């Protein structure tokens, strides 16, 4: 779990994780904060927990990609999973990993559904999360993943894939193989979760997916996800990210023929990181452009206001007019919806495959509390059948 300047959430998530009594886990906590004194003082009180490996803030703060790099390097487990400092992951996931390994010895990547949680202040009103009613374990073919990832098949704002080292887990042996295969680093591209996903999906032997959730994607007021839909907030956080990186990655030469800077939105950021991967490693995948244009339209439609929508639409439209002779401009057709048309009380109840809850269900004030409340509706990890 890498962290930067979010010590309150970092500490809360550490408490939630180490509350587990399991002894077959290792927790790597990497602080990268401007104030280097807060977290060492906190972790010193946990010195008796042999599962903890703490990486203190360096004298000069690292970029995100370099902080993730040292976090991966410090981990020694046979399987590795990353989460953010405002997230949560169930330590009992280890039981499922062991059960899947027993049935599929050559599995390299395991993923699962996730719940969502917005910390107080991240959104002006309560958001909704959904719990799958089943607990199926299924194998996913690489061809399907390639179409969904690099072909943007069936994508919303982003491609529908979950296999990476982030809120999913990868066999350490594959991590080391990919380090040698790709740039002699664990993470190369600054959009680290995408960098991880592209490499794992391109190289893993077998992929297994759990319908049952095992983690919570958190969003605190300073998360990048909390700025989604708000152009000014996104621009500020984008500038901070580039300052930490030490360069504007949107100006990298490899992106000269891709007129969608990551500052435009989440679809553009993923598109740019994919373009980098394609060009750097010669990946060939045809027929993705129209699907990408539709995702950019959906990205615009998530705008927080009419003004934000118009700014986002104009940026993307300008890119599509010049990209590949404008061939995909017609697929980019965002439609603005007034907030009043979409706003309303959080929907709760059951649809055929999901239980829908407000994120404050049962008084939850943290991702761990939401997960624990939801766990009462989910099959325990040790009881999940793995009929592979």
Automatic annotation (TrEMBL):
Protein species of origin: Rhizobium aquaticum
Highest taxon in the source lineage: Bacteria
Family matches, as InterPro entries: Glyco_trans_2-like, Nucleotide-diphossugar_trans
CDD domains: Glyco_tranf_GTA_type
Protein name: Glycosyltransferase 2-like domain-containing protein
Cross-referenced Pfam families: Glycos_transf_2
Domain (Glycosyltransferase 2-like): residue spans on this chain: 1-105
């Amino acid at each position: 779990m890498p962290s930067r300047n979010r010590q309150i959430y970092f500490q809360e998530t550490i408490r939630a994780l180490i509350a587990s009594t399991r002894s077959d886990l290792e927790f790597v906590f990497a602080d990268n904060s401007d104030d280097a004194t807060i977290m060492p003082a906190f972790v010193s009180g946990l010195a008796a927990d042999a599962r903890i490996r703490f990486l203190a803030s360096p004298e000069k703060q690292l970029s995100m990609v370099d902080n993730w790099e040292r976090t991966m390097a410090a981990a020694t487990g046979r399987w590795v999973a990353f989460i953010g400092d405002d997230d949560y992951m169930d330590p009992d996931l280890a039981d499922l990993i062991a059960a899947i390994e027993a049935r599929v010895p050559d599995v390299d990547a395991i993923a699962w559904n996730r719940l969502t949680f917005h910390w107080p202040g991240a959104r002006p009103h309560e958001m909704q999360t959904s719990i799958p009613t089943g607990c199926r374990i299924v194998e996913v073919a690489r061809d399907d993943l390639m179409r969904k990832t690099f072909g943007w098949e069936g994508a919303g704002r982003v491609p529908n894939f979950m296999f990476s080292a982030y809120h999913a887990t990868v066999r350490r042996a594959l991590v080391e193989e990919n380090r040698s295969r790709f740039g002699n680093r664990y993470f190369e591209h600054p959009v680290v979760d995408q960098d991880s996903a592209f490499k794992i999906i391109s190289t893993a032997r077998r992929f297994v997916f759990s319908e049952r959730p095992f983690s919570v994607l958190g969003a605190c007021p300073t998360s990048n996800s909390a700025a989604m839909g708000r152009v000014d907030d996104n621009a500020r956080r984008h500038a901070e990210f580039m300052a930490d990186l030490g360069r504007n990655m949107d100006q990298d030469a490899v992106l000269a023929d891709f007129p969608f800077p990551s500052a435009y939105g989440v679809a553009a950021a993923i598109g740019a990181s994919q373009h980098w991967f394609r060009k750097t490693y010669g990946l060939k995948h045809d027929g993705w452009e129209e699907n990408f244009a539709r995702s950019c339209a959906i990205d615009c439609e998530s705008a927080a206001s009419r003004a934000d929508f118009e700014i986002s639409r104009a940026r993307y439209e300008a890119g599509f007019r010049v990209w590949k002779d404008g061939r995909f401009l017609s697929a980019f057709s965002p439609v603005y919806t007034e907030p009043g048309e979409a706003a309303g009380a959080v929907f709760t109840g059951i649809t055929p495959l999901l239980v829908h809850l407000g994120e404050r269900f049962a008084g939850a004030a943290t991702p761990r509390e939401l997960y624990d409340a939801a766990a009462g509706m989910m099959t325990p990890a040790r009881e999940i059948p793995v009929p592979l």
